[in-house]
Amino acid sequence: MEPCRGALADILLVLDNASHTAARPGTTRLLAVSKTRTSSEIAALAAAGQRAFGENYVQEALPKIDDLHGHGLEWHLIGHLQSNKADVAARAFDWVQSVDRIKLVAALARHRPSDLPPLNVLLQVNIDDETGKHGCDPQAIDALADAVSAESRLLLRGLMAIPAPFDDMARRRDAFRAMRRLFDALQSRHPGIDTLSMGMSEDFAPAIEEGATMVRIGSALFGPRPAKR
Ligand SMILES: *Cc1c(COP(=O)(O)O)cnc(C)c1O
Predict the structure, then answer these.
(1) What is the pLDDT of residues 30-47, one digit of tens each?
(2) Could you tell me the distance, in angstroms and rounded to a whole number, from the CA of residue 114 to the centre of ligand 1?
(3) Residues with Cβ < 8 Å from 58, sequence gap 6 or more?
(4) Residue 114: how many CB atoms within 10 A of its CB?
(5) CB 174 within 8 Å of CB 181
(6) How far does the centroid of ligand 1 lie from the alpha carbon of residue 32, in Å?
(7) Three-class SS string for the chain?
(8) Which domains are present in the chain?
């Protein structure tokens, strides 16, 4: 596959424009979502200057993290994390964006190696109250945040959400706005947090306008995902 330099440049331009519209120039980070992509596709994007990559599955990510060791990349786990994989995740990733229960906090803290910097943590929020979806209830944020803050091997960085994919962009904006309010409330209790991760290929510009500081983009960068293997 061709290196996706063109797509990367296009996305960085839209990202920059949206950040200006939101009066927050230069504050939004791009996470390249590399699930289903090969190590060589990731290496091509890294060569074009992209540093942060997101993966959904621990087992799929491990060989890629290994292959690309030495490229100075930053790895984010953005998919649901089962408690029995917390030990592996705590060693392999730099960030876990999908923390949504107390049990996971303790497991990640216990397994984060002492020779690595603290693991960066985002709390995933089920903002549209979708049944069967992962993420914590908004009411649970404070207790989870306090639990993360109490762990020296974890660093609380903020919140993450995957809003319901409404066709109506106004409804998606409602979810982004609600997340922004939750983020601001959390920041008043935990002034060190700096990351609100929301917005994907189809809706990252409105997400930034509503307050996202990190957007997670897969298909718009790498092309449509191959059919499920
Ligand atoms: C796949 C995925 C993305 C990226 O989705 P695209 O529509 O391909 O940009 C972002 N966040 C999460 C949690 C995902 O699973």
Answers:
(1) 999 999 999 999 999 999
(2) 31
(3) 77, 81, 85, 88, 89, 92
(4) 6
(5) no
(6) 9
(7) CCCCHHHHHHHHHHHHHHHHHCCCCCCCEEEEECCCCCHHHHHHHHHCCCCEEEECCHHHHHHHHHHCCCCCCEEEECCCCCHHHHHHHHHHCCEEEEECCHHHHHHHHHHCCCCCCCEEEEEEECCCCCCCCCCECHHHHHHHHHHHHCCCCEEEEEEEECCCCCCCHHHHHHHHHHHHHHHHHHHHHCCCCCEEECCCCCCHHHHHHCCCCEEEECHHHHCCCCCCC
(8) 2-222 (3.20.20.10)
pLDDT tops 90 at residue 149:
yes
* pLDDT confidence of residue 228: 62
Does residue 201's CB lie within 6 angstroms of at least one atom of ligand 1?
yes
Atom of ligand 1 nearest to the CA of 78: 13
Structure tokens at 44: 């091509």
Distance 33 CA to ligand 1 centre (A): 6
- Please name the amino acid found at residue 96: V
d(CA 119, CA 93): 8
pLDDT of residue 56: 98
Side chain identity at 122, as an amino acid letter? L
Write out the two tokens for 208: 């930034």
CA distance 183 to 171: 19
**Ligand 1 pocket member 134 (CB < 6 A):** no
The angle that helices 169-189 and 141-149 make with each other, rounded to 10 degrees, is 50
Q: What is the pLDDT of residue 1?
A: 47
